[in-house]
Amino acid sequence: MNPITTEQELIRIVWALGLAAVAIGLSLWQQLGLAGTLAIATLRTVVQLFAVGIFLSIVFTLQNPGLILLVLLVMITIAALTARNRIGKDIPRLALWLWGSIFISTALTMAYTMTMVIRPAPWYDPRYLIPLTGMVLGNTLTAASLTGERLVHALRHNRTEIETHLSLGATPKQAIASYHREAIKAGLIPTVNSMMVVGLVTLPGMITGQILGGADPLVAALYQMLIMFMLAFATLTTSILVALSIKQQFFNQAMQLVEPKKRK
């Protein structure tokens, strides 16, 4: 089979845009009011992914550890800010707490994966490190958002019950134990659901990409197992850290339930 050139790939993408055009047409036909949104989303997808592709080509060529680290830090920062926006901008220092939670869980996951499982040479090989980190960050972002939203909502809408427990001598940990657990479970739902049906209902990006690239399906399946185990660890760790950080924001040193307020 002859190798596919970049020009051939571009032609395929142009044809693929036809699917987006049909989706926009269907939206107009059904008067959904989404045609403009779909058009903008399509344009952003093309521009953003082309820009990322060009930038990563440069990063892969240079293989500079400092540049790779900068890319990863920017990715983590964007993930933290996105999660903060979904949970609530009114909670002080939330972005910093989220950044730390996502950074710790991602760093632990990638350190183990790169040094114990994949073992590339060098260990910071961007062809492995950046795509795998991106997969982890996408899922930790979702876990952080779901956990944070669930716990903040519970703390704000169950004040009477929580304060009753506190007045009877319970510690903050004991008073919100059920809400704490439910929030962490909520953060894990997407990952657990994916693990339950992977290979049966869905073929995720890693295995699909490898098979399309010509890899042996069994090897592709083994790599997908690695991804799923990485995501399980990373999302659970993130959810636990986010829940703990939000608890710190809603209780003062006197163990009283308070509403976090930004300093003026």
How would you classify the helix and strand content by structural class? mainly alpha
What spatial form do the alpha-carbon principal axes imply? globular
Query: What proportion strand?
Result: under 5%
Q: What is the count of structural domains?
A: 2
**Low-confidence residue ranges:** none
Whole-number mean pLDDT: 90
Radius of gyration: 22 Å
Topology, number of strands: 0
Q: Total helix count?
A: 10
Helical residue percent band = over 70%
Sketch the topology as an H/E string, one letter per element: HHHHHHHHHH
Q: Mind describing the biggest β-sheet? A: none
User: End-to-end distance, in Å?
Assistant: 66 Å
Question: In terms of topology, how is this protein built?
Answer:
Elements: H1 6-29, H2 35-62, H3 65-87, H4 94-118, H5 126-157, H6 159-167, H7 172-175, H8 177-197, H9 205-212, H10 217-250
Helix pairs in contact: 1-2, 3-4, 3-5, 4-5, 4-10, 5-8, 5-10, 8-10, 9-10
